[in-house]
């Protein structure tokens, strides 16, 4: 598989409970191999004309590009925000054995090690 097949997806959530629920569902549905949850990030943004500052958690999702559309749909159905942050970044270089594990973990017919 080529490197352009892999993605890191960044998602913010309103707290650890919502973050864990989204992360668990993505991994259970094999839309993500792994989701790291970074607690206590502060987000500053403009929303509906207001400057906002909110505590959030950051989800760092490792997946394949082929999973992105379904991953986005799943996050939107589970997320409490009207417009959740869901940003996919390409993985340019990575450990081949790790990326093989990502593929195995996001393939519905195989079991990852």
SSE topology:
Layout lengths: L5 E8 L2 H13 L5 E14 L2 E15 L3 H11 L7 E5 L5 H10 L8
Antiparallel strand pairs: 1-3, 1-4, 2-3
Helix pairs in contact: 1-2
Helix content: 25-40%
Q: In the CATH hierarchy, what is the architecture at level 2?
A: 2-Layer Sandwich
**C-alpha end-to-end distance:** 18 Å
Give a count of the beta strands, DSSP E runs of length 2 or more: 4
Structural class: alpha+beta
Count the DSSP helices: 3
Question: Helices and strands, in N-to-C order?
Answer: EHEEHEH
Mean pLDDT value = 94
User: Which band does the percent of strand residues land in?
Assistant: 35-45%
Total domains: 1
What's the gyration radius in Å?
Answer: 15 Å
Name the poorly predicted regions: none
Structure description:
The chain is α+β, with helices and mostly antiparallel strands and 113 residues long. It has one domain (3-105): Alpha-Beta Plaits, CATH 3.30.70.120. Helix content is 30%, strand content 37%. The protein has 3 helices and 4 strands, in the order βαββαβα. It has helices at 16-28, 68-78, 96-105; strands at residues 6-13, 34-47, 50-64, 86-90. The protein has a 4-stranded antiparallel β-sheet with strand order 2-3-1-4. A hairpin with a 2-residue loop joins strand 2 and strand 3. Helix 1 (16-28) runs antiparallel to helix 2. The longest helix is centred in the first third of the chain and has 13 residues, at 16-28. The two termini are 18 Å apart. The mean pLDDT is 94.
């Amino acid at each position: 598989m080529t490197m352009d097949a892999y993605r890191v997806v960044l998602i913010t959530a309103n707290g650890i409970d919502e973050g864990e629920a989204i992360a668990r569902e993505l991994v259970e549905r094999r839309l993500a191999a792994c989701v790291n949850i970074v607690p206590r990030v502060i987000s500053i943004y403009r929303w509906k004309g207001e400057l906002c500052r909110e505590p959030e958690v950051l989800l760092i999702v490792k997946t394949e590009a082929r999973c992105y559309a379904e991953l986005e749909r799943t996050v939107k159905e589970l997320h409490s925000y009207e417009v959740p942050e869901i940003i996919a970044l390409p993985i340019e270089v990575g450990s081949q054995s790790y990326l093989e594990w990502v593929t195995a973990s996001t393939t519905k017919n195989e079991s990852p090690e």
